[in-house]
Amino acid sequence: MNSIAFGRRALAGGALSLGLARSARAQSWPERPVRIIVAFSPGGEPDILMRGMQPLMQEALGQPVVIDNRPGASTQIGAEAVAQARPDGYTLLMTSSTTFAVNPHLRADLPYRLSQFRAITQLLQAQLALYANPRLPIRTVAELIEYARRQPNGVTYTTTLRGGVAHLAGERMKQITGLQMTDVPFRASTAAAQAIIRGDVDIGFDGLATYLGLVRGGEIRALAVTGTRRTDALPDVPTFAETGYPDLAQGYWYGLFAPAGTPDAAVARILAAVQAASRNEHLRSIWAAQGSTLDSMDPDTFQTLLATESARWGALIRSIGLKLD
Question: What family is it from (predicted)?
Fold first, then answer.
């Protein structure tokens, strides 16, 4: 064999060996625990969601899944930590639509950029509802609008995070209806709900979890939900589309992200683990009872959803001139 032929065969053999090694590494991932940084405090809705999926994902991955709560600064702290992590699939971010669809339009000094992340999948799709003090003479959105227009100072509404989706839903309603609505901030949904019950505040947009028992007990009235269809958790409450305001149909989601550059093989294994967890009937029934849907999707579809919502919220934020720098 001449030296040229030998060299070619050696190169071919080396390339084959490299390819096999890469394939073996891809098939063996993960080889150690996977850490999921949750950009929220322990005990809240996103934390409960992730901890419910944790054992099912561990089973699918064959490695421990560690939950690491990094709350604060409207999810910025958690997002920054993952943006700086190695892109090897072992550090992930669990966060909400606020992180990438809202925050970039509100703050010029964010410590992260969307380009530093790779979208993996949505985890949960949830919706808001519009709540009212039951002692007010309003049972429908139309009656609320009529009532608000008769009041010299309009109506007040609760917010629990300035710039969050519930706050922006109120701003969108103001814009669409032309109502005078004054936001009253609270630190948590429980405090906001109690303010509506007492009559300190007239109405409020918020998620369903805190309010379901209050609505069913007659302490608070739900006027409409922001989903595209009614929720089984409150089947008698119409959607905003049914009330004549389809532009107020807007929910929120939680999703999973990895640092940009994370290998395709790792992303595929993570997605498969999420899909396995999402098919668990017990877990699905728990969240359905809260008016939410476990709903995974492929990365491309998730990225499209993110871009669509970012454009929508960005247009609203620019139109009202809201900035939180």
Answer: Belongs to the UPF0065 (bug) family.
pLDDT of residue 4: 53
Q: How does DSSP assign 135-176, residue by residue?
A: TSS-SSHHHHHHHHHHSTT-EEEEESSTTSHHHHHHHHHHHH
For 171-192, give one letter per residue: b (16+ CB within 10 A) or e.
bbbbeebebebebeebeebeeb
Residues 134 and 239 in one domain: yes
Q: Is there a single domain that holds both residue 106 and residue 37?
A: yes
- List of E strands, the chain: 34-38, 65-69, 91-96, 117-126, 128-132, 155-159, 181-185, 203-207, 221-225, 252-259, 293-294
247, HSE (Cβ side, Cα atoms, 13 Å): 12
Total domains in the chain come to: 2
Residue 58 pLDDT greater than 90, yes or no: yes
Say if residue 144 is in the same domain as residue 238: yes
What predicted TM-score, i.e. pTM, was given to this entire model? Answer: 0.85
